[in-house]
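Weekly structure sync, notes
Attendees: PL (lead), two postdocs, one rotation student
Agenda item 3: pending single-chain targets
PL asked that the sequence for the first pending target be pasted directly into the notes so everyone works from the same version. It is reproduced below exactly as submitted, 345 residues in total.
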Amino acid sequence: MTATFFTFLLGIATSIIGSIIIMGIQAYHKKKEEKRLEAKCNVAGNYLTYFDDEIEGVYVESKARAILNQKGKTISGESKVLYRDSTRTWILTGEIIDDRFIRGVFHSDDKTANDIGSFFFEINKDELTGGWMGFDSDKKEVVKGKYLMKKMKGTRKITDYTEHDYPNIHTIAEQRLGSHYLDSLFESLKTGDNSVFCKVAIIDEEVVGFGIGIVKEVANLVDELAVTGTHKTQLLERLKTIKTIGFLKAVAVSENHEKQGIASALTEAVILEFQNRDIRNLMSFSWKRSSGPTSIGILKNHGFKELCTIPDFWTEDSIRHGYDCPECGVPCHCTAIVFHKALRT
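Predicted structure, written out during the meeting:
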């Protein structure tokens, strides 16, 4: 009886010990697999994301910042849209499949909204490329679009212009906007003209972009921009209740640093400077080229509304100042789309 009972206890102990060993081996292999996946498919980090969106009936490329966390094949994180008027944050959950793809779902952090959807990415080194599909509770319909996530690298800051920045921003301006386009404004910056200011984007001590703003009385600004004829009358009529306006003249980013959210950050910095100067109405132009307007998405994302279009806007100015348009050469025949934004008081 005693021997039988002892054998019974020994069997139970052996089973428990065996189970513990098996669980330990399974946990070891699970941890090993997690480490393998995290090394091979390291997707954790900070990202800038680009996705197809619709704003006021116009399809644009919107931007957001995202943070992804990873434990083995399990992915979690959140994404926040990068424009001032939006407070929406999206919660992301997903998993890695076949060591190459990520599939998952997203939903709004707003518990009163029913916006939900799914996403699918292919893992390409420091980029995740794919698409999304979801239910838009405002439109009451299913929407979809492309989705790109680019991992952020380096330390970025937006700062005020100094004379040491001039060679770099001048080079970027010549390459991205055309020869001599901003020469007069650069002279104003050099002389300390307080009506002109410049914000500079720097990554790891390298100047990679800039944004220029001008504060003027509406009539003087329209004259300086060489708006003439019926277009001048139309523009002054639309802005007749405004005396002083902030003009977002240009935002440019070096070609090697495109699609990293820098232009959006510069635009926001210029808008904030206008706010700090107590300027409540802003204006900006977008060039309408054969490849499409160059900044329409950014302007709309930051709350600018379209006022009017002006054909051949830069023609006379390009001849007078020798401005070499990167699209047309000399003279420039680009159409300008005029945008306005009223800042909140």
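Discussion points:
- The chain has a mean pLDDT of 82.
- The chain has two domains: 45-151, 156-342.
Action: rotation student to compare against the earlier draft before next sync.
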